[in-house]
Fold each of these.
Amino acid sequence: MKKILRNMLLAACLFSLPLSASAAAKDEAKDVNNLKWWQKTVVYEAYPNSFLDTVGNGIGDLNGITAKLDYLQKLGVGAIWLTPIYTSPMGDNGYDVADYCAINPLYGTMDDMENLIKEADKRGIKIVMDLVVNHTSEESQWFKESSSDKDSEFSDWYIWRDAAPDGKEPNNWGSIFGGSAWTWSEKRQQYYLHTFAPFQPDLNWENPKVRKAIYDVANFWLDKGVGGFRIDAVPYIKKPASFANGTIDKATGFAPIHNETANTPGILDYLHEFKQEVEEGKDIFTVGEANGVAADQLHQWVGKNGVFDMIFEFSHVNVKFADGEVWHKTKAWKLTELKQAIAASQANTASDGWYPIFFENHDQPRSVNNFLHEGADTVQGAKALGMLLMTLRGTPFLYQGEELGMSNVSWTSIKDFNDLSTHNQYKLALDNGHGHEGAIKIMQKHSRDNARTPMQWNTEAQAGFTTGKPWLAVNDNYMLVNAEAEAADPGSVLSWYHKLHALRKANPVLIAGDYQELLADNEAIFAYTRNDENTQAIVLINFTGDTVSYPKELVTDAKLLLSSCDGTKRGKLRPYEAVCWTKNISRRS
Ligand code: NOJ
C-alpha cells in the first residue's frame, strides 16, 4: 500500500498537467528562444590577481585573462565578471577603489582592457565589471577632498558625524571586517562611517551628486563595450535615518553593522533610479551582491518590476552558520537544509525573475571543502557540485579553479594568509580563547584566501601562474590539480565541465525548463526535474560517500544523458555519483 501511494506521488511529480491558458502563457518562459543571452550562458568569475601573470611580478593581469579566452570559450563561458581592476591601494585587493575610470597599473593599461573587451567579444564573451558603490578607497580624490575641507564640494559625499558628547564614536556599530564602523578624521574633526575597513569610507547615497557620479562611472564602462555589472555590497548603500545604537555581539563588543543597515527600507528607490540611468534600453545584465536580502524578498529585487536582473543571495552558502552569519559559530548541516535554501530561491524566481547559481566566489572557501563531508573524494565531489551548478534553473556563475576542483589551503601560520579580514578574524579568535591551533583551523576552513590562491595551470613552478614569486602561495596540490593535466584526462573535473557544457547545449530544457524538486526529505540525494513542454530532465546527485538507492520509477522510460560514473544503474547511485536522465513528456500534455 505504502509503495502504491509513493508511486502515485512520484507520478504526480513527474507528469505534466494538461495545458490551460495561463499554463500556455507560462510555457513561453520555458522556451529557450525567449530567454536573454545572459540567461543562457555561463558566467565565469575571474579574480585577476590570481588568474595569470604575464609579466613575472607575481600578480595576475589583464593580458593573462586575454591569453586564456580560448580556454574559457571552451567551457561555454559567455561573460567574465572581473573583480575590481581600477586603481586602488589594494588594501582589500581592489575593493578599495581610488579611481573608477582608470586601470590599476598592476593589472595593465586601458589599452590592455580595451583589447580584452575586443578579443572577448570576438569569441562571444562579454566583460562584466564589478561596481563597488557602497564605498571608495580613502585614496579617492572624492574622499581626500571630503575629509580635508567641510566646505569642499565633496563635503557630504561621505557619511560624517560629530563625536558623541564623551568624544567617542557616534554609535556602537561594528564594521564587517572588525572594530568600530567609525574612524576619526583629524583633519575634519569628525567621524566617518565605513561598513568594511577604515580605509573604505562609505559613500553618502542620499546625495544626488554621489548617485549621479556612480551612474556616470557605469556609463563610462558601458561606452567601452562591457556587458554588465556585478554590484558590490549593495544592501548597505542606504542607512537608516536614526543611526541608533544596535544590539551588541558579545564576541566583538559591537553591534554588527550588517544587522543595522542591510536592506534598509527605501533602498529600492535608489536602485530603480540606477536601473533607469544605467541599464534601461541596453542589452546588458546586472547582478547585485545582496547578502541580507531573503529569498522571499527576491521578487522585489529581480524580475519585471525589480531593480536588477539577478541578485546573489546567500542563504545556501550560509547553512553552515549556527548563528546568523557569525563566522566563528559554524555547525554541521544537513543536505535537506541546503536543498530547502536552494528550493526557496528557485520557487521565488519561478514565475518572475532569474537567479544566479553559485557555490564559490572570491569570498567563500572552496566548494569541495564547504559542501562535501570531510574526507570526501574531491574529484567525484567536484563533479557532483558541477552537475548541480550547471543544471539548476538560473545562470551558473563558475569561479576560477572551480572547474578544476581546486581546494582549500592547509597553511598553519597566520603569516601565510593575506586577506585582511582573515587577520582580523584570527586575532578575534585568539581573543575569544581559541588558541593558535583552534584559530588557524577556523582560518583553514573559512578564510577568503582559500579561494584566492593562484590558478593552477600546469606542473611548472608556481603552477604556471607566474615566473616570479606569487603574491599568495600556490596550493600544494597543483601537481595533480591543474588545467593542463586535467585537459588530457577524460576522467578529470575539467573534462566533466566540458561534458556539462555540451549537456546544456544539447538539452535546452536544462536552461529554460522549470524546476520541480524530488525526494525533498532525502538526506543523501539532491534530486529534481527540469521540464518544458516536451522534455523532462531528471537530475540525481548523491551527496554522500555511500552507495544509496532511490525509487527506480523516477527514471522509468528515461534515457541516460550523462553520469559521473561508469555503468550507472536505475535506482542506485555510487558515492557522489551525479546523473542526468531525460524522457519525452509531450504525449502527456
Ligand atoms: C564584497 C566583496 O565581494 C568582498 O571581497 C569585499 O571585501 C567587500 N564586498 C567590500 O567591498
Amino acid sequence: MDIKKESVLIMDFGGQYSQLIARRVRECSVYCELRSYKITAAEIKEAGYMGIIFSGGPNSTYEENAPKCDPAIFRLGIPILGICYGAQLMAQSLGGKVEKSDSREYGKTEVECNTSSLIFHAAKAKSVTWMSHTDYISKVPHGFKITAISESCPVAAMEDIKNKYFALQFHPEVNHTEQGMLFLRNFLYNACGCTAEWKMSSFVSSTIEQLKEKIGSKKVLCALSGGVDSSVAALLVHKAVGKQLTCIFVDHGLLRKDEGDEVENVFRKQFDMNLIRVNAQERFLTKLEGVSDPETKRKIIGEEFIRVFEDEAKKLGKIEYLCQGTIYPDVVESGAGEAAVIKSHHNVGGLPEDVGFEGIIEPLRDLFKDEVRQAGLELGIPEFLVWRQPFPGPGLAIRIMGDITEEKLEILKDADAILREEIAASGLARSVGQYFAVLTGIKSVGVMGDGRTYDNTIAIRAVTTTDFMTADWARLPYDVLEKISSRIINEVRSVNRVVYDITSKPPATIEWE
Ligand code: XMP
C-alpha cells in the first residue's frame, strides 16, 4: 500500500502551531506534509494532495509584504481549511474583507457554531475555543456563509460548501479548543475524503520496501549514537538490507554508566547488526585534558568525533550511502519555510562530507519524535532505548564543570546512575522531561562519622518540558529527593553534598554548560 496516497498539505504561513497542526492531522491517521506557503498550485497538483490547510501566522493579510498563497490554488478544486491568519487570507483572497480590531481576542473563548455546517457536524453548538488574533474578517467573500460567532468576533468560522472552503478564526489544533479534533476530523474525512489509513505499521513495512529498492546491493554506513533517532533509522535500513549496513558506534567515554554496553548488546546481540564499536575514551580524554571552557569542550568533541568516524569509515572501503536519523522537525524550517535544513548533527559536530557517499538515506524525514518512538516499538527496539531522554552529544563533558578527568567521570556516572534508578523506581520517568546529575566543581566541608570532609557537590537537575526551548524545574517529591541524596552520599565516594537545581529555563539553560 502506498501510505502517502492520501496526503494532506499544510501550508506554513509562519504560525507557532504549524507543526502542531501536522501532528494533529497524523493523529487522525492521515499522512500530511508541512510546506512553505510559497508552494505553487502546479506543485500541489503534481503531489496530488487531497486537502490543504492554511496555517496561522504573525502577519496581517493587508500588509504589503504579508505572505500570500498562489491564487491559482483556489482553482484546483481541492478542499481548503484556513486557520486564523489562513482564514483571513482565504477571506481576503476571495473578495472578502479583513480589518484590524480595537482589541485583541486572546485565550479561551466561547464560540457558537451552526451544527449543520460540515466542519461542525456532530459537535455541541457552544464550546470553548482558543483564539489569538487582532484582525478579523469583517465581510465574507461571495458564496460563503458564516458558520460560527463569538462575542467579539462576527466571523469565528465561515464556509463555502460548494467549493469546500472552510475557515476557522480559532485554533482547532490546540488542546484548549474542546472540540478541535472533531473539527479537524470532519475536514479530513468528510470534506477531503481521507480514510485514515496512516498507521505506523504500514509506514514501517512500506519504508523497508522502499529502502530495499533504493539501496539494492549497495552498502550503507550509519553513525549510531544509541539515541532513538539514529537507532530507529539504522534498524529500518538493517531490516531492508541486513549486513549491507555497517553501523559505527563511537564510544567517546562520556556516555552514562553502562550505556555503551547497552547499545552494543541491543544492536549486536538482539538484532545481529554489523556494528563497529570504537572505544575512543582515551583519545577524547587526551584531547580534553585541562580544557574547562564549555564551548571549547563541545568543539573538541565534535571534531574528534569526525576524525574517529572518518578513520573507521576509511577502513571499510567504498560505501555508497550514509544513513542519518534526521526527523521531520529537523527538516522543516518554520516561518518562511525556505530552504529545508538538514540536521547537522550539532551534537556530534556534523559528519564528514568528503567521505564520498553517493547519497544520504534519511528514513525518518517524515516523522515527528513521538512517531519515531512508535516506529521503534513497532521494530522491537527495547522500551528503555525508545523512551530514552535526550542526551547531549558532548555527553557528560558538559555536566562536569571545569576540566574532565577519568576520576570525575566515574563520580558523575555513579551519581547519575543512582538518580536514574530512583526516578525509574518512583514511576516518574515519563513525566519528567530530562533529569541528570551534575558535578558542580564545588567542594565543601562536611562531617562523616567523626571526621571532617572536604568533598564534591553533586547537583540534581530535573525539568519538565515539551519542547526543550523552555522548561520548568520538576517538583520531584521530597521523599524521592531524599532517597537520591542519601544514596549518592552513601554509595558514591568523594561526594559529601547534594543540591537540587530549582531554576527554570529561561533564565537558566537545562544543561549547566
Ligand atoms: P539547554 O541546555 O540549551 O538544552 O537548555 C536544551 C536541550 O538540548 C540539549 N543540549 C545539547 N544537545 N549537543 C546536543 O546534542 C549539545 O551541545 C547540547 N547542549 C544542550 C540538552 O540536553 C537539552 O535536551
